[in-house]
């Protein structure tokens, strides 16, 4: 019987994402084009799609060559991949909250549409939500404060003209309105669902190459949910469910790395 978790996630991976994941997760320091094609076939990807991905990623500097037909990670920085590589430390970005906020503001019509979409994505990825006045806000409870946040947003592609600042004095009404911008129940349910997804995957694991496919796809979905957590302070939302998800993913990752070592030995 097919695994519903596997089928649901398998449709979502592209050749580009798979190749990047292979190097982000440290399957091996270098991989031959032949090995990458064999791995890709296990995920239902065509040789053409994989060749195209390899060519484009090399041109972008996200892959490098270590010999004829041998690929390694590139030298171009990718802040999203860098954050994904250290997903275990994501909750550790939180510090004690002093009640202040980080705000961000820019006029959408002052930017090209694609730049505005990237700016909006960077804000949401860093846990900002937009108030009814149009102001983007989040609690000032991450390491580095507003200054570090401004740099992180620009590194993720946000417009460098955007104002990012710390707000220390907010009225009680505004603080309550800001705190209600996040759907805390939905966030907790998302983490619980991810924990159940990981547990279900382990209980219904297949065999052979299917194990490698399952662990990568299911693991990347769990990591996506970890990284999308806005890291709200305990004064606004409970934090224990994220910690449980990280612990569950840590155990799953250990299983997955063993499965991938076996899979790679059989290529």
TrEMBL record:
<protein>
    <submittedName>
        <fullName>Phenylacetic acid degradation operon negative regulatory protein</fullName>
    </submittedName>
</protein>
<dbReference type="InterPro" id="IPR036388">
    <property type="entry name" value="WH-like_DNA-bd_sf"/>
</dbReference>
<dbReference type="GO" id="GO:0006351">
    <property type="term" value="P:DNA-templated transcription"/>
</dbReference>
